[in-house]
Amino acid sequence: MANKLPTIFVLLLALIIAFITYWLKAEVEKELLVKKNNNTSGPEFYIKNFNSIQTKKDGAIKFKINAKSMKQFDYAEYAILDKPYFTRYENSKPYSYIKGNHGKIVGKGEEYSFSDNVVLTRVETAKKKEMKLFTDQLDILPNINIILTKKPVKIIQEPSIEIYGVGMKYDNKEGILKLLNNVRVHYDNPRKKSKIN
Questions:
Q1: How many domains are contained in the chain?
Q2: Same domain, 33 and 50
Q3: Cα–Cα nearest to 133, from 102, 100, 110, 94
Q4: Cβ 98 vs Cβ 90: under 8 Å
Q5: pTM for this one?
Q6: pLDDT tens digits for range 76-112
Q7: How confident is the model over 125-135, as pLDDT tens digits?
Q8: What is the DSSP letter of 65?
Q9: Which domain holds residue 167?
Q10: Contact residues for 35 (Cβ-Cβ < 8 A; gap 6+)
């Protein structure tokens, strides 16, 4: 009997380990199946003519974002936008516009990412002429007033300046636009043109 005790103990231990292994395998497979179903399933909800407004504490409009449609995917923590249009306000007036063919809202609106034929327009003011920026992808961080991209950009500053570069960071609070690499500037002097004509 004394010789059988270690054998019984080893068999019992092997059965416990086999049961735990089977249970863990079943749990992991169940988790993977849930993840696969989430990834292949459609959006949680779909909105046509999506429109959202964020205001400051005093009720003034901070920014608006609208799109032709929005699809919300809860499991991935993002929403897909079709033809998004972002408007930044200052002193209750539109200050800049950003549009693109596609967009994404990340998290709870901490970041907006626009792609495919993106155009940023800063409206003309008493001190500054209209400026347009063209790129393929642009990230907007509305809560900290920063816009950035790693893609090539083209900037047209009225009346006759064209600027090219790769990568850009625009800090709206500070009013500073930085081009990060391969910067080229083309300037036409309008006075020279008028003398020739």
A1: 2
A2: no
A3: 100
A4: no
A5: 0.69
A6: 677 889 999 999 988 888 888 999 999 998 877 888 9
A7: 777 788 899 99
A8: E
A9: 45-196
A10: none
